[in-house]
Structure formats: C-alpha cells, structure tokens
Design a protein that fits this description.
Strand 1 (19-23), helix 2 and strand 2 form a beta-alpha-beta unit. The protein has helices at residues 4-15, 30-45, 78-87, 106-111, 142-153, 160-173, 184-195, 200-208, 213-225, 241-246, 257-262, 292-297, 317-333, and strands at 19-23, 49-54, 71-73, 90-94, 115-120, 132-135, 227-229, 234-239, 269-275, 279-286, 302-303, 307-313. The chain is globular. 42% of the residues lie in helices and 19% in strands. The chain has a six-stranded parallel beta sheet, with helices on both faces.
Length: 334
C-alpha cells in the first residue's frame, strides 16, 4: 500500500504543532507501548513537547522499554493529564481506532479541539472521528506503519531508542515472527532495526524470560480451569477475581494465556474469560479461516480475524462460559 500522501499530511501537522499527546488502548501490549515510545522519541528529536498518557499501567515485561518513565498514567494525576490533553494541538491514537478503548481518556480526547490522527492496523473504524487515518490491516503491527512514517520523514530519526521500541513492538505482535501477516518485509524492517541498535536477544529476554513467580502460579490455575468442547475444537479457560487476588496479579499477567491455548493440538478456537472488578473481559483466538472478529462483533467487541476480544457486564463467569459455548456451536455451524 502507498502511504506517501498520508505521510506528507501527517508530517505537515507535526511541523505546525507544538504540544502533542500520544495514547493507546487499555491494558497495552508490546505493539502499543513500543509504537508510543518510538513515536515519542521521534517527536522529541523534532523538538516537540510530547506526552504519552495511557489509561492502564505499563505491563511489567515492557517497563524496560520505558526506562525514563515518560509514560503517564491518567488516573495518577487526572487534573494534570486533562490539562495536557486540553492544551494539546495534536493527538495521536496508536494501535486502536476506537476512543472507548482508551477508557478514562475517551471523554477528554473526543472533546478536545486538537487535530486527531489514528495510526492502526485493526479492522473496523470510523474515519469521521479523525482528521487523518493511517490504517493498513495487512501489516502485522502498528509499529510497521510508525517505522515507515518516520523513515519517510528522515531515516536519521530511527536511532537506537526508536529501533529498540519498534523491534519490540513488531516481535511481540507477530508472536515472535510466527503469526499470519508476517511477511518478508517484516523481516527486512526488523533487520534494519537490528542494524540501527535493536538487540533481538536482549529484547526477547526482557520481554519473555523475566516472569514473576505469581504469574507462573496464576498460569497453573488457568491451565487447571481449561475445558474442551465441540469435539475438542474449542478450549476455554477462566480466571476469577479470587484467582487474581490470591496470586497478587492483575490483567497484565494474563498476556500469553490465549496463545498457550492455541498451541494445543486440534484446537480451532480458544477463549480466555477474565472476571475483572467491574466487568468481564474475554479474549478470542482462532486458526485458519475461523473469523473470531465476527464472533466478538456479535457481543459488541472487535479485533482481527484470528485475534479479537469483547467486554461483558459483570456476571457469573461460568454462566457466560455456557453462553459462549452455545454461540460457538451456532456461529461456526453456519
């Protein structure tokens, strides 16, 4: 896909803007954090006043990317963060195309008079919500688009810090280069980032090989909860509020659980049900042509063809599980 016209429009807005805010979806993953931080250092190099404001704290395994602690958490200083949003003249929404995925920030982002730009690779969007919409659902990570945008401006801006964050983002969102949409271009871009200072060994170690013992114990609880349905084509695991409290954990510790389900032989779809304090979050994963985005959309959710999610009102998670099993049987029988 050719982006040159959109790149020029974004570069012009950056040039004429002074105060810029970056944000992403709640419970940010590697692509969200890496894209934000890479873009942050790019904009700082252009002498812009930049703030990253997120709804959720940075997951422990991505904190090494933010060694300078530049990411602000909205709830930690609501008054100050609202002021930063209101004073901004340009806002970037990265790795999501829905304001409601920013939770606490959503109201203030939509009311802001700043120009708004979305850079994302997910399906489903409304262009009317943004002044510029840079989207490509064929790329495996939002970081690919960020890389191309920065390189189009000037490759010199892809310094070591930018390269490390972009590589981490691409590595995690491709499942270490094994998910669909991982192409030759993905490897070429990653190679360029390595040449510019990203160390693939260190980044992998920091991301995946420094798990807290609480997460390992929670994973054991999750594995015990797994049940198999529809001729073993569907696997479902549940984590309750009690589980999270007992293991001193939160939602960020659940990253990778859905990937584990999909490593089980003959499984076509996996569901992770998580009982939060105020609602229930479900992650859906699938293989091949099984479109879980449409499955999630039925419940008001969304995402990719093989990776999606939805949020449900607080209820008994085991009752919700039965609803999901029934819908699976109806939905995929069609």
């Amino acid at each position: 896909m050719q982006y040159s016209t959109i790149f020029k429009k974004i570069e012009r807005l950056i040039l004429t803007s002074k105060n810029i805010v970056l944000t992403t979806h709640l419970i940010p993953d590697g692509d969200a954090i890496g894209s934000e931080l890479a873009f942050y250092y790019y904009l700082k190099a252009k002498n812009k006043n930049v703030n990253i404001i997120n709804h959720s704290p940075t997951p422990d395994n991505y904190k090494f990317l933010d060694s300078k602690n530049v990411i602000k958490i909205f709830s930690e200083d609501i008054v100050k963060n609202i002021e930063l949003i209101e004073k901004s003249d340009l806002i970037f929404l990265l790795d999501t195309n829905e304001y409601n995925r920013t939770k606490g920030l959503s109201e203030y982002l939509t009311k802001s008079k700043a120009k708004k730009i979305c850079i994302d690779h997910h399906l489903g969007f409304n262009k009317n919500f943004f002044d510029i919409y840079l989207s490509d659902t064929t790329v495996p990570a939002t970081a690919i688009l960020v890389y191309k945008l920065i390189k189009n401006d000037n490759p010199k801006y892809i310094n070591k810090k930018v390269a490390i964050n972009l590589y981490a983002a691409i590595m995690t969102d491709t499942g270490s280069f094994r998910f669909p949409r991982t192409t030759a271009e993905t490897f070429l871009i990653s190679a360029d980032l390595i040449n510019r200072g990203a160390d693939p060994v260190v980044i992998y170690e920091e991301t995946y090989n420094k798990l807290r013992k609480e997460k390992i114990k929670l994973l054991g609880k999750f594995i015990d909860s797994l049940t198999f349905h529809s001729k073993n084509s569907l696997a479902i695991g549940i984590i309750t509020q009690k589980d999270l409290k007992e293991h001193n954990s939160d939602a960020q510790d659940l990253e990778g659980f859905s990937t584990l389900i999909m490593s089980i032989n003959k499984i076509k779809m996996g569901i992770v049900i998580v009982e939060m304090k105020n609602d229930i979050k479900c992650s859906f994963r699938s293989k091949g042509n099984l479109n879980v985005r449409n499955f999630a959309k039925y419940f008001g959710g969304g995402g990719h063809k093989n990776a999606a999610g939805a949020t449900f009102p607080l209820q008994n998670p085991y009752h919700l599980k039965r609803k999901l099993i029934n819908h699976y049987n109806k939905f995929f029988t069609k």
